[in-house]
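I have been asked to look over a protein record a colleague put together. What it holds is a sequence and that sequence's fold in token form. Please read both lines and tell me whether the tokens look consistent with the sequence. I do not need a full report, just your reasoning and any doubts. This is what I was given:
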Amino acid sequence: MLVINPACDIAHSPGHRKFQEELSLLLVPGSLELIPGEVESLKGTELIRLAGKHYRIGWDIERLISVRFGEIGNWVSEHGYELVAQMRLPYVLQVQQRFVANLTRVGTPVPAPIYQRADAQILVRDEGEFASNLYAVLLQAHKKRQLVLPWVTLLAAREGLRKVCEAAARRSPSPKGLPKWKEACQHPEWWWRHEVPQDLPKPNRLKKLGDMPVAFSFNSIFDVQKELKQYPVIIKIVADEPEGDDEVPS
């Protein structure tokens, strides 16, 4: 750990400068890298000699730790640190400057994503339409369109799969995938993890939803009964295509 506060901020003396208990000490964590050896960080301090060996210190300037000055003694003891050396001022200033440059860098403005509502319906094996009046969200950013399936639509797909399982259990022989379908119905977290942006399927093609026994389509024309033989549940999504090109406006 390296304290990167200016030395004048933490200096104190009785009768002249009061001890500032509430001051936040800023600590930059580092790790010793044996020389010669693999360089893990370019933001380091070269040639530190400890116990007869030579090291460099790789500083993680993006993982700053703040500790109240009045509690630093207890914090050091609790975390097993001890004072082993004091770096010379030019090397400390080098780490300070790297930290400040990283903290104050100017970010490039990026246009906010464009959102569009899309209609969704659930198709299930043997029955066709199971649920309608659902929705999905199209988002467009960096000239790329993606699709987000909200929880309400995923929940309807899960209920559709549950109904397929109930019907399949009454058949003989039952489908090979039935045990996995039942397991998917019993684990809602398997569905939650798919509430994230998905790449759109290719035109007139279906795309499997991760490792789930569910597929989804987008503005596609396909043979419903044929595809339902492969996927027990299909989420059919339809949306108006944007006029003109697909670029995100500035």
Notes: Confidence is low (pLDDT under 50) at residues 245-250.
